[in-house]
């Protein structure tokens, strides 16, 4: 029996409860919605967590107690009959994710729930009702549902390094003889699927399900299909694409690339009738199959080919003649456990119009105006057999043709063959592309912009953050980051969306995930990814550099697997998710022990693989620097980063109440390694580490490894290197850039951090902007480096830039010890050189706002503190009489404040404030 016991944040059913002051006593609830899951069907954890928000009204709002009721039917809950669970009044002002503690929940169980809260202003009425249902909790309940497919290629397919495998079409007709009360589909379609009932597409998801290592776990999706079933004969249909299951490069580097097999499906349709009876329709050999349909090939690297002449009208409706189809065969199951997909999955999240189309010989070049990820929807009319070929790229060569060398051997080509039946509209179903430009060949007539739409595809999630400053370069970099981050969300965070890679590299997101979480509600994506990493861990403790381990890269370095820890810390700090720590602490501890046993020598961590990846090279044509003076020693990187992880493990151990011996081990080892690090790398005469690179000095300074009486001197060496050696430019790679901007600001040089952020000459983020980039490059010199490695849509070089934007420029930071922004440190770097910063962040407690504007010696700052939070607001100067909050002088406003190190620090409860400082 397989039951998932732990429920991470992505399993949470969450309500937004809006409170508004009323004329009478108490607080009124005026709105309710499901927040973290777009459709809370099929939860496969036995203790789902419930959460809700207060929206600010006239009275701020701090919850002091709550009461939850859960019932098995709507009617019972309406009558306050909580037959599953009544929490009673619980005094807890920090309750965010309340685990269900009622009667045991069984497979396919339905549950309705509501909540009321108490605040100092009174008792709320009951919220509206919300709903969730359980998925299939036991493997045995799938046992009679067999996997079906066809484990072979067909005559028109080819299986080689550049495989061409057509989509498989499956269908079955069933008879519904009674009135349907409820019907649910539970489906696993690998590698990807589209599901139809009676010709109607089920759900608005695309590229489903999210990818996993299918030998470890397989995600199933659940859909309510009550409304589409009809009395009499009904047709069930599915199309199976290849996805990551039938790997993009077959029989190529088998020592590196993991393969799984041919597409397959397992599905059950659970029908409950109004008379109380039940019927389950399962996948078996009675289903019919063909691969001779319109999708002739689909490969994530190479594209999709669709021949509309081979369409099968009515194939997914009742009465279709499938006598020429084959009987599906039973096939081997993938091997991984079956789990409900607790992430929303991918959707078409935006549609954009192209900005230009130009003829080039017998071809056309379409410009989307933006490097995007998804596909092109085309509208075309012509003769049967006319063939439109679409080839994709991120940029153009000097002659105006597509630049595709940097895509390596990815063919990135879609082909649509017309059926010749009036206006035809098409987009691919099972591939995506990273592109700005499209080369169009064979289009009948003269195409114009109206024939094309770009559809942006990524995981369905809220955009949680906005950010704008008085500096146009910073704003453009933010916009580029926004487009790059969301384009690389594909059921997991991938490194790039365009070339023959698209892998979930850990090192790209070590700090990046933290910055991304200000912009996107990415908790479900990253919680799922932690599971992927955990499942990829070897029995002896090793963690790969890519997870899921589609590529077998177990490099045993420190800096890439460290992402496992930093992402868990992000989920805890930003979302208050303690279960991420509880679930993954044992695996983290196992890896720490593995590294200590194998690579810790005389207090130093001796294994590194990538160095400070992608430092700006000395020549614009190089990918990696060859200058030893620019490189940072691998043992230094590994040791310093491992000390950082020891500090994180100490924090995690405290949160989850781990054994005291764990804490003692981490502390003792941290001290031992710090001492060894000092002895090996510190030049006491010149106050720098090793060869004095910015990264070599930055890591020990950031991680608290520098003796207190030498911190200023080490920092001065960082400044000297940036300002004099590098002429005010960045010189760090993936590792150093994770800590650069915050550390400069922390030690009083926010102005230099701003200079690095706003530079427009090489190397800098602004240099990318100046060279027409609309996403973030893989290399600082991505416009000139060898095409072997110069993706124009990577996010790893963002480092801590977005964190710096929000925490240090806007002043929106979750205080240590107050996860989920229970307390907000609002300490903007007013001395950075900017005149204006405006930012919002929709946290788990509600929206946080920080909008400040300086003019001369005057400062105006609008601050929004959400309910259930407080803010520590840092104001420049010590003269309280010059400060007004909501038009009242600070020293007579009743606001608690103190003076500290030349600043005024005010404590603000929930609310919106206008702060003015004159002179």
Structure report:
With 919 residues, the protein is α+β, with helices and mostly antiparallel strands. The protein folds into 5 domains: 9-133, Immunoglobulin-like; 144-343, Galactose-binding domain-like (Jelly Rolls, Sandwich); 348-459, Galactose-binding domain-like (Jelly Rolls, Sandwich); 465-810, Glycosyltransferase; 823-917, Maltose phosphorylase, domain 3 (Sandwich), CATH 2.60.420. It contains 14 helices and 51 strands. Strands 21, 22, 26, 27, 28, 29, 32, 33, 34 and 35 form a 10-stranded mixed β-sheet that branches. Strands 11, 13, 16, 18, 19, 24 and 25 form a 7-stranded mixed β-sheet that branches. Strand 39 (682-683) and strand 40 (688-689) form a beta hairpin. Helix 5 (563-575) runs antiparallel to helix 6, helix 7 runs antiparallel to helix 8 (660-681) and helix 9 runs antiparallel to helix 10 (711-725). The N and C termini lie far apart (70 Å). The relative contact order is 0.08. Mean pLDDT is 93; it is low at 1-38.
